Amino acid sequence: MIDFLILLLCLPVVGALLILFLPEHRQPWIRPIALATAASTLAYTVFLATQMDFTNPAVQLVAEYQWNERLGTYFSFGVDGLSYPLVALTNLLTLVAIAVSTQIKERIKAYYMLLLLLEAATMGVFITQGWALFYVFWELVLIPLFFLIDRWGGINRQRAALNFVLYTMGGSVFMLLGLLMLFDANPEHRFLFASIKRASAVIPAETQTLIFLGLMIGLGVKMPLFPLHGWLPLAHVEAPSPVSILLSGILLKMGAYGMIRSAEMLPAAAINLQDFMMALGMIGMLYGGLLAWRQSDLKKMIAYSSVSHMGVVMIGIAALNTNGLMGAAYQMVAHGLVAGALFMLIGLLYERTHTRDINDYGSLLRATPRFAVLVVLALVGGVGLPGTAGFIGELHALIGGFERWGWLVAALSLGMLITATYSLRTVKQLYTGPVNLGMRQVEDLHPLELAAGGVLVGGTLLLGLYPLPLLHLLHSSVQAIAAPFGG
Questions:
Q1: pLDDT-derived band of residue 437, with 50, 70 and 90 as boundaries?
Q2: At a CB cut-off of 8 Å and minimum separation 6, what does 100 contact?
Q3: Which of 200, 203, 453 shows the shortest CA–CA distance to 341?
């Protein structure tokens, strides 16, 4: 039998190796090889959907090999309706990031290799079926990200890269301690998800809660939860724009995905900490939105808006019911598309104007009509207006939250109003008002850039206008996760 997921994991690694051993006189081939690798990986991911039955909540396409019997570790891979969309999102955003990396002119071999290795490590987080391998891939993601920010970032890139790694590694210490406690508490002494789910019936609620808190700190740094978000704005501002697409579009989702899996493995802890998780989500949503409102730096604004949107995801997770978890999962995909589009477009605008200050712009509509259409639609998607994917995610999170906490969850609407305020301000400042003479010659989107941005914005609209396919894909897995909590 073909190990579909191991082949999927190897595709970007093979592409990176091809680039590594490419002779010096074949340097012009580097970018085409990276594009072909990312496109092949995405195409193969789409093919895998034909090999799955999304009405079945079970983990599928399983490949499992013993790693270390004494430590209870396995090379175990599999996907379900929750993890598959995130794998597909990872591969789509990687292809877009490579496509818009035209401004990278130095050390291009290392740059494209690191992007492909980052793609493989991120996929590993979503397809692994054991906490030991999850932790390995979680840490592996740090290596390419550190070098991508440190070598190709802005003026303060070294500080940003170090800040990011120290924050994440600090959180990982708590995650590791939680996993060691989990291994000890599991009578089978295994890290496999299935084994831990079986053991949850005999692990005391107090022990589960302590383990969950350790995992929450580690996962919350990457998500990021308030107050563990300090690394995010600097990393986004200093990272090259293609890396920001991946950082916000998919890397933040690793933490949310891990949080859902933690709740699934440790149900007693999730119930004990349910109100605490909701409070963290609510604070993050409002705090991130208010900070985004105050920013004049466009990249910082989008970075803080990500904190706000991930707060909505956290509220959905905390609801522990089908609607809430469906909202969290749908919002992860929706935010990945919107944040990816915004970071791509703002990055391309910065490359043309060399400023991110919103006050330096004005009346760009005539000079850059293609930019205008995509930026406005992406910002509308971020607000979550009906007809966009964000609306579907936020609506389910709102319904799930209402089922659990009643009218208290109405604060979600305040977060949406704050998002609308800074989004409309951005549209007004970029495309209306007095003409800035220095902006008259700004170049509009090129065909490849237009295609990349169009795919992300088009995906946001498609999933908003026709949400049924993704809802169908997620439903069985989300329902199975919510079942122990009463659905």
A1: low
A2: 241, 242, 245, 344, 347, 348, 448, 449, 452
A3: 453
Q: What is the pLDDT of residue 360?
A: 77
Using a 10 angstrom Cβ sphere, with 0-12 exposed, 13-18 middle and 19 or more buried, the burial of residue 120 is buried
Token pair 């590993």 is found at 124
Residue 324: partners with Cβ closer than 8 Å, 6 or more residues away? 315, 316, 317, 318, 396, 397, 399, 400, 401, 403, 404, 482
**Alpha-carbon distance 212 to 463, whole Å?**
33
In the structure, what pLDDT confidence band is assigned to residue 195 with cuts at 50, 70 and 90? confident
In this prediction the pTM is 0.93
Closest of 291, 282, 224 to residue 252, by C-alpha: 224
Half-sphere exposure (Cβ direction) of 70: Cα atoms closer than 13 Å: 0
Task: Indicate the range of 130-144, 366-380, 406-420 predicted with least confidence.
Answer: 406-420
Cβ-based neighbours of 267, under 8 Å, separated by 6 or more: 200, 208, 484, 485
140, 163 contact by CB (below 8 A) = no
Closest CA to 140 of 251, 290, 262, 32: 251
Strand partners of residue 130 = 192
Alpha-carbon dihedral angle through residues 228, 234, 238, 242, given to the nearest 10 degrees: 40
